[in-house]
Amino acid sequence: MGQVADEVDVVVVGMGPGGEDVAARLANAGLSVVGVESRLVGGECPYYACIPTKIMVRAADALGEARRVPELAGSAEVRPDWSPVAARIRDEATTGWNDEIAVRRFEATGGRLVRGTGRITAPGEVTVGDQVLRARRGIVLNPGTEPAIPPIEGLAGTPYWTNREIVSIEQVPESLVVLGGGPVGLEFAQVFARFGCEVTVLEARPQLLPLAEPEAAEVITDRLLAEGVRVRVGSTVQRVGHDASMGFRITTDGEEFTAERLLVATGRRTDLRALGVAAVGLDDTARTLEVDTRMRAAEGVWAIGDVTGRGAFTHTSVYQSRIAAADILGEPGAPADYRAMPSVTFTDPEVAAVGLTETRALAERDRVRTAISRLPVSTRGFIHKAGNEGLIKLVADSQLGVLVGATVVGPSGGEILGALAVAVHAEVPVALLAEMIFAYPTFHRAIEPALTKLMEP
Ligand SMILES: Cc1cc2nc3c(=O)[nH]c(=O)nc-3n(C[C@H](O)[C@H](O)[C@H](O)COP(=O)(O)OP(=O)(O)OC[C@H]3O[C@@H](n4cnc5c(N)ncnc54)[C@H](O)[C@@H]3O)c2cc1C
Ligand SMILES: NC(=O)c1ccc[n+]([C@@H]2O[C@H](COP(=O)([O-])OP(=O)(O)OC[C@H]3O[C@@H](n4cnc5c(N)ncnc54)[C@H](O)[C@@H]3O)[C@@H](O)[C@H]2O)c1
Q1: Looking at the 3D structure of the chain, how many domains does it have?
Q2: What percent of the chain lies above the pLDDT cut of 70?
Q3: Which family does it belong to (predicted)?
Q4: In a 10 Å sphere around its CB, with 0-12 CB exposed, 13-18 middle and 19+ buried, how is residue 80 labelled?
Q5: Which ligand is nearest to the CA of 268?
Q6: Is 214's C-beta closer than 6 angstroms to any atom of ligand 2?
């Protein structure tokens, strides 16, 4: 005998930041909505990613600033203690990795939560265990990603950490090898180094933050080195070994590193087969779900978040959620536009970027001009002194006379980026930006000399 299906308007599979947002928007609009979540409502960001890591960064930055006191204001004794960090993550941020508050927030909208792993089993149908859900209007997929573990000999079966484990540690290890020099790897590397851990970063590509401007990567590499982090780029790990007394032994093409702990931060993976997308005619061997500018992936199926491959950020997921909700509700709204997608890696200095890098602009545009302004030679940089490393790089389409990209590395780089994100988003002419008045002596005032360089004949 077949199961009796539960009929609703919309089924949201995966309640990450975008899934939670779209489910609430649709429920608030009066639709019957079921959210399906296999782990915690809210997804990776509040429990294992953005929030706990930024709590760590805030604490590590306080240590970093305190260590700058001797250069500026006398002396300060810095004795790091992880326990307030662990307590804030456990008690204030994640309530012990418990999503009760998020569930109540969702249920208050009229939505219903089904715990378990959802799978599309037919057009308009999601199955969770033995429960069959029929979606009259549509299915929204927001499954996020899992840590990708490289197939390195000896790695599987060792007690390595990913972001999922490291966010709940109660004690800083004595030594840590970080595999991967992307945003995840670097944020953790600096945090742990500042807490007194001996940190080594092994990055396979020739530069840290391979997607960033090379000038930005250079600044952050120099800072990490200055803080005692060992950095290897172009490094291929060949073998990993572990034993309880010795810890980890990591063999690269020419060196061997030992460490108490190993953090694998080598990117993310999706599993479209497990999601059952073939049932709606989609390629389940692909890495991401292709969506149109309204987040439609197939007839009656929308996808949002990391799985769409448009930048794995919480703000992307929530932005896409807004568009998908409007489309499902038949409301007008602007189609997705990623030209001014911002990103911030919360190292010190922060590495923030919007739009195209120089390399990508050269690949896409006929006439590209760039200009760099260095923060240490700006007035604010001079005043700031210790910790003033950084730069502002502008990328312009010189034919159109507008900025198409910008990178800011510096103290509060993510905040400085705001002005440049507006410029890229609104296509403000460079000539108009150059007429602006920039407050003295701010860090963002360093945008002005870069604009002046762009305007030179
Ligand atoms: C260490 C780290 C730090 C980060 N820091 C930042 C930051 O500072 N700023 C930023 O913008 N981004 C940051 N990110 C990225 C950010 O976490 C993600 O982009 C964000 O969580 C959005 O992801 P998502 O909406 O695609 O879904 P996710 O947050 O990944 O959530 C998806 C949810 O779906 C559930 N799920 C999956 N499959 C199923 C299924 N079949 N059935 C039921 N449930 C399912 C999962 O259990 C999960 O809860 C960071 C990432 C990491 C790893
Ligand atoms: N502040 C933020 O907004 C923030 C913070 C963390 C993560 N994120 C997002 O989460 C996603 C995941 O971040 P991530 O840093 O894990 O992934 P990533 O893909 O950005 O970086 C992974 C790095 O690991 C390297 N790598 C891969 N295999 C390797 C190997 N075998 N040995 C050595 N190095 C190897 C890659 O070259 C790359 O530099 C990214 O899209 C990122 O933008 C955002």
Answers
A1: 3
A2: 99
A3: Belongs to the class-I pyridine nucleotide-disulfide oxidoreductase family.
A4: middle
A5: 2
A6: no
Domain that holds residue 440: 342-455
The pTM of this model reads 0.98
Residues 199-217, mean pLDDT to the nearest whole number = 98
Burial class (CB in 10 A: 0-12, 13-18, 19+), 36: buried
**Residue 275 and residue 246 share a domain:** no
Distance 233 CA to ligand 2 centre (A): 14
Q: Provide the sign of the torsion angle of the four alpha carbons 88, 89, 92, 95, taken in this order.
A: negative
Compute CA distances 153 → 258, 284, 358, whole Å.
Answer: 16, 27, 37
| pLDDT in the model for residue 5 | 78
CA atoms within 13 A on the CB side of 237: 27
| Residue ranges at the known binding site for NAD(+) | 180-187, 203, 267
Mean pLDDT computed over 107-116? 98
pLDDT digits over 284-324, tens only?
A: 999 999 999 999 999 999 999 999 999 999 999 999 999 99
Tell me which residue has its CA closest to atom 30 in ligand 1: 144
Q: Which of 281, 304, 329 is the last residue of a domain?
A: 329
Looking at residue 1, what is its pLDDT? Answer: 45
Q: How far is CA 178 from the centre of its chain?
A: 17
Radius of gyration of the chain (CA): 24
State ipTM.
0.98
In-domain check, residue 218: yes
Residue 37 sits in a domain whose CATH number is: 3.50.50.60
Q: Is ligand 1 within 6 A of the CB of residue 342?
A: no
**pLDDT tens-digit readout, 17-56:** 999 999 999 999 999 999 999 999 999 999 999 999 999 9
Give the helix/strand (H/E) hosting 233.
strand 230-233
**Contact call for residues 135 and 11 (beta carbons, < 8 A):** yes
**Ligand 1 neighbourhood includes 184 CB (under 6 angstroms):** yes
- Say if 152 falls within a structural domain: no
Together in a domain, 12 and 135: yes
Q: What is the mean pLDDT of the chain?
A: 97
Spatial distance between the Cα atoms of 428 and 442, rounded to a whole number of angstroms: 21
* Domain CATH code at residue 426: 3.30.390.30
The closest alpha carbon to 270, from 143, 368, 161, 176, belongs to: 143
DSSP state of 153: B
122 lies in the same domain as 189:
no
- Do 305 and 390 fall into the same domain? no
Please check whether residues 358 and 451 belong to one and the same domain: yes
